[in-house]
Amino acid sequence: MGFTCGIVGLPNVGKSTLFNAITAAGANVANYPFCTIDPNIGVVAVPDHRIERLAKIYNTPKIVPTTLEFLDIAGLVKGASKGEGLGNQFLAHIRMVDAIVHVVRCFDDPDIIHVDGAVHPSYDIEVVETELILKDLETVEKKLSEVEKRARIGDKKIKAEEEFYAAVRNHLLNGRLARYLLPGSDDEQRSLRDLHLLTDKPVMYVCNVHERELSGINNYVEQVRETAAKENAKVVTVSAAVESEISQLPESERQAFLTGLGLQESGLSKVIREGYDLLHLITFFTAGPKEVHAWTVKRRTTAPQAAGEIHSDFEQGFIRAEIIKYANFDRLGTEAAVRDAGLLHVEGREYIIEDGDVMFVRFNV
After folding, report:
1. Distance between CA atoms of residues 129 and 140, nearest Å
2. pLDDT-above-70 percentage for the chain
3. What is the pLDDT of residues 215-245, one digit of tens each?
4. By the 8 A CB rule, do 169 and 144 touch?
5. Concatenated DSSP letters for 9-71?
6. Angle between the 121-151 and 219-231 helix axes, to the nearest 10 degrees?
């Protein structure tokens, strides 16, 4: 199962620099708009100390971490919904992602051009979100036009659809993002999902600050926090330039570099971890002498569904799951010790997988 976060924002806010640091994919970075023509794609491991601990317990050199995919999407500008700045192409790319990482410039630098001439985070956020709303309005208007033609036959179900799409249109016309619309019935929820609206995607704001402001107060960041508080959105503060430096260091030197800056972890680790949480994902593990493998599933996933992530045969022929909690593995140190302590639990088809579960699947094809 793949999950993708799209990195968006105005031109010259540090999106591609951040993307390079995340994925080491070598995206083109330049001091002018639209240096990114096609979305650059990179896959990055989700930081998780548990997988290394399980590998030590089983004494296996093979580790397969869980991952997120990031798309670096070229800078949006005012008028993107009408095709300005190749906007239609880039808005289509946003439609492909599961969540949006909105990078906001929170630093002053006369050598780096701001597309609107001055740094103003709350306004910058509004520009991007307005373009997404306008594009969603196009989508809803088209759907509403289709339904209105069918509603003329007097079918009550189609009439209800028409009323719902009209409500979505009015919601967007009032400048509200689709994710704050609360559909009532299951049919309305399904209709909203089927629209694949850009503003229905979960968002995380990433404040790109100067290195010297990583641990201090930044008025620009406070603007972003005020906006995020209204939207119940996540906020992460990073310095894209610092993250770029860290990504070029040998792994053994990175923690010392962070410590020298007074940081416990990199901003990118926070972005990746928060992106994982933003998508309501959890990690479960399969483990043994041959490999330790982390798997990504949505919260509320059942044991058979999780088994299907490993192999489709496992879901079809699912019999039971044997579950060991990671905390018990970590505390007791071996699988045998966990079993002897009676801490291996046998679960059936209704069991909901929890974060950190180590699962052994029993199945029959």
Report:
1. 16
2. 88
3. 777 899 999 999 998 887 889 999 988 988 8
4. yes
5. -STTSSHHHHHHHHH-------SSTT---S-EEEEEEPP-HHHHHHHHHHT-S-EE--EEEEE
6. 20
